[in-house]
Amino acid sequence: MSWRILNLAVCVLPREERRRYLDEYASELHDLTQVEGLSGRTQIGYALRLLARTPALVFVLRSSASQASQRRIHAESSPYRVENT
Known about the structure:
- By secondary structure, the protein is an all-alpha fold.
- About 80% of the residues lie in helices and about 0% in strands.
- Helix 1 packs antiparallel against helix 2, helix 1 packs parallel to helix 3 and helix 2 packs antiparallel against helix 3.
- The longest helix has about 40 residues.
């Protein structure tokens, strides 16, 4: 059940970030299971907390991508741009 919740959280992330976060979340869940020996209920709680925080993460990721795009556009249109030769 916790894996399904994690997959749901990852599905709403921007496409280019999904693999990274799926790997990270899966690693954390695996550690909780194997190393700490936490119960299934605790794992589900962890997955639900990730899902609850997903809208904020989506906002941050999209803001970061937008800012990076704006910086790239600004750099490309700058009259002081240095050309690589």
